Amino acid sequence: MFSHNKRLQYTVRVSETNPGLANLMLEQFGGPQGELAAACRYFTQAVGEDDPGRKDMLFDIATEELSHLEVIGTIVAMLNKGAKGRLAEGVDAEAEAFRSITGAGNDSHVTQVLYGGGPALVNSAGVPWTAAYIDTIGEPTADLRSNIAAEARAKIVYERLINLTDDPGVKEALGFLMTREIAHQKSFEKALYAIQPNFPPGKLPGMPEFTKVYFDMSKGGEVRGPWNQGEKWDYASDPKQQMAVDGGSGEPSVQLTAEDQAAVEAMATRTASDPTGNPPTGAELGMSDDAILDELATELGKPKV
């Protein structure tokens, strides 16, 4: 059960309207790193969670994310307020109205015309919000890691938005939202570490002969570090160490019934290529006679025409 309090979690103070900036703020309203995605991610995890501690934490943070959605949505609405009224009432001449909503050089005219300046559930490029942003898989040790990364990504987006405005009130509100991403990341990390063991994710262990092998498969400019050296790693640089690591031939095989085998062989025979042929191509047919003769002369090692 939810009960909405009309007072914002953090007071929004906007010094002047700015439709272009409002459009950029939509990234945290209806974007993949935004507050609605976070709220839905944590809410669905909470509903499916069996651990009472994690369930409580996830519901708390999911609900707070909804309050953050309200804050960022209010920022969008306030930044659009002046242009919204002028456009709706036709106060300006056509050219001036168009200039006012496109002067920032982005797609703010789309949100003004299509959504009336309200906080639409789209990102800053106008892409509609989608549940595909939610990557919950139902395994706490995996989901908590994903949550930690999601909070980190959201913090970075807020940092970038802060750098796009000199409005002190907007900066303060964005700074609050950014800071709460840090707090949530800490909570998720603590919850992850409270599960012991928590790596590897899931129940099944890895194959021990491969869990500490680092395959150096990209050649040139190799750099060694804690991610691929030390007593916890076996560094496999020789290509021979990287092929058929199971001890087999490395060639794929499949067991077929006699009927399937006959069908596969018949298809292979029907579609076989003739390695001795040299059929003309469409490109060759479109060439001039001289070009064809030059190409044939090159193949025969004779002087061109």
Describe the fold and architecture.
- With about 300 residues, the chain is mostly helical.
- It has a domain at about 20-195: Ferritin, core subunit, four-helix bundle (Ferritin).
- The chain is built from 11 helices and 2 strands.
- A two-stranded parallel ribbon has the order 1-2.
- α1 packs across α6 (about 110-115).
- It is extended, with a radius of gyration of 30 Å.
Summary tags:
metal ion binding; 11 helices; about 300 residues; two-stranded parallel sheet; metal-binding; calcium; Mn_catalase; about 50% helix
Quickly describe the structure:
The protein has 305 residues and is an all-alpha fold.
Instruction: Report the strand count.
Output: 2
* Overall CATH class of the domain at 19-193: Mainly Alpha
SS content category: mainly alpha
Q: Helix tally?
A: 11
Distance from N terminus to C terminus (CA atoms, Å) equals: 87 Å
Name of the CATH architecture of the domain at 19-193: Up-down Bundle
CATH homologous superfamily heading of the domain at 19-193: Ferritin, core subunit, four-helix bundle
Which band does the percent of strand residues land in?
under 5%
Quote the CATH topology of the domain at 19-193: Ferritin
